[in-house]
Every structure is written in C-alpha cells, then in structure tokens.
Amino acid sequence: MHTGYEKLGDFTFLRLIDNMSLMVRKPLLLCLFACAFALFNAQGEEVRPYQLPHIPDSLVTPDVRSEYLIEHYWDGFEVENRAYLEATDIVEQAFVDFTSIMRIASRESTMRAISILLDRASADKDILLMYVDFADKYLYSGEGNFVSEEAYLPFLEAVLDSKKVDKLYKLRYSYQYDVLTKNLLGMPITNFEYKLPGDDKKYRIKKLKSPYILLYINDPECDDCSLTTLRLSVSQALLNEVRKGRLAIVSLYPDGETDEWLKSVEDYPKEWIVASMENGDRCFDLRVMPALYLLDKDKKIILRNTSLEEVENKLKEE
C-alpha cells in the first residue's frame, strides 16, 4: 500500500515539521502583532497633539479674544501627563506658540496664564523642569521671537521654591534669578565700583553727581557696540545735555581693565567718563550688548535696556 510517505527524505521531513510548527506559531505571532498595534494606539492616545481652545463667538474684538486665548491656552492639554516627557517636540511647539500670544496679550493676562501653567506643571519635578527649560530657551536666551525677563521670572521662582528639585540643579537658576532681580526699572542702580584707565583708585557710581547719568555698558570689540558708540557720540542732543551739566555719560567695560580695552579708550569722546569694572555680569544682564541705562539724580533706573531715541525723548520731556 502506497501511503505517499515512503519517499520522504530527511530534508523533506524537516520542512514538513517546520511548516507544522509555523501553523502553530502563526496565531501566536498574530496575537503579538495585535498587542503591539494596540499598545501603539494607546500610546498615541496618551500623547495627543496640542489643540487651541475654542474662543466663544461672543468675543469679537482682537484684544478680548487674545485675553481669552492665553488664559485658556492650557485648558485642553494634559500638562501633567508624563508621556509628554518622551514627546517633547509637541510640548515645545505648544510653548513656542504660547510665547507668540504673549506678544499681543496684556501683561496681566500673560502673567495669569503663566501662573496657571506653573501650578499644574509643578506637581511633577521632571515636567516642571521641562517647561522651565523651554522658558529659558525662548523667553530668556532669545531663541524665540519674544524675550521677556518679567515673563521668565515666575519660571525661576517655581524652580527655586520647589522642594522636589535638587539644590544642585537649582544653582544655575539661582544665578539667573539673582542677576534678573538686580537693576530693574524703578530700582536704584547697584552701587558698583569702577576704575578709570590706568588708575588704581576705585569709584562708586552713587557718588557721581549729576541730574542724569547715561550708563553705557559695552565692549569695543562688539560690532553692535561700535555702531552704538558712534551714534551716541554724534548725538547733538546728548552733547548739549552734557555741556549744560545735566547729563553724565559713563562708558563701562564690564570685564576689567584689559590691555585690549585700554587700547580703545582714546576712541571714546572726551566728554564721557570711560571706565571699567570687574565681573560686570554679576550686576547686569549682559546677554545682549550694548546695554543702556538712564538714571535720575537719585540713581534710580528710569530707562532700562533702552535706545538712543528713547533717551533723547526722555531728556527732552524733563
């Protein structure tokens, strides 16, 4: 009787066994694929793209709509969801758009919106630090199109006040906070010491007697500084104020009396006080150079990070 198996060789027999094994394994593989697909879908549901809140139709004016938008910006977003720690690109884009709205919203609404965000983010150390890093990048370090020290300060305060963040990690933010809370608009200027070229004697800025002081922090090797120096030096309005005794212009180099700086001293107008100070970055925010501060007779800051035009207009008003 011919069964059809007599001529099966070892190779054919092994292939048959493999096929049978595959028939047994196939349902298991299908099950594994199904589980993986379901897990992928579940993760996709956990990490959802950001969606803007719906603005009620009853709000028609641009200012009112922007106020509503920024104050409700995070309503539909799972700020507390740790899944976004693995999808930071979604959070980063949402934060960038958030800073764009700050440009058109009022100060009060912006600060309320930041407070709402930080109240939610502060529940988790890692989530809080993620948002603070984005704030550092876009509100402080200038990688975005909206820089605001006032908007950045609440993020620093949230980190420094958090008991969940390690003290060593706080050091960087503590330094930023210390710098940003010095020499703010309306505050008396830090009573720093400065030196005149080649003179070992040190002077204090608050000892300088003048109804107004224009503090010009600059580096002669900085191209923007060179242009600003030229514009300040040819301003007849400033020169007239100096000659009338109403204004003292202090050109301040913040990195100490270096040989390079000493070579440039003669390039400044003779009517100016040209000086240097040590460790200027401990007193002033020097991320952007040059920096202009206008002080009144009490050495209070009445214009900060200002422009030549604003200084001229302010002096004209007085």
List keywords for this structure.
disordered N terminus; alpha/beta; 5-stranded mixed sheet; 11 helices; single chain
Quick structural gist:
The protein has helices spanning about 10-45, 60-70, 90-100, 105-120, 125-140, 150-160, 165-180, 225-235, 235-245, 260-265, 310-315; strands at about 195, 200-205, 210-215, 245-255, 275, 290-295, 300-305. It is α/β, with parallel strands linked by helices and about 325 residues long.
Mind summarizing the main beta sheet?
5 strands, mixed
The helix-and-strand class reads alpha/beta
Distance between the termini: 122 Å
Q: How are the strands of the largest sheet arranged? A: 5-4-3-6-7
Shape: elongated
How confident is the prediction overall: mean pLDDT?
87
Any idea how many domains? Answer: 3
> What would you call the quaternary organization?
single chain
Describe the structure in your own words.
The protein is an alpha/beta fold. It is built from eleven helices and seven strands. The protein has helices at residues 10-46, 62-71, 88-102, 107-121, 125-140, 149-161, 167-180, 223-233, 236-243, 259-264, 308-317; strands at residues 193-195, 202-204, 212-217, 247-253, 273-276, 291-295, 301-304. α2 packs parallel to α4 and α4 runs parallel beside α6. The chain is elongated and about 65 Å long. Residues 1-45 have low confidence and may be disordered.
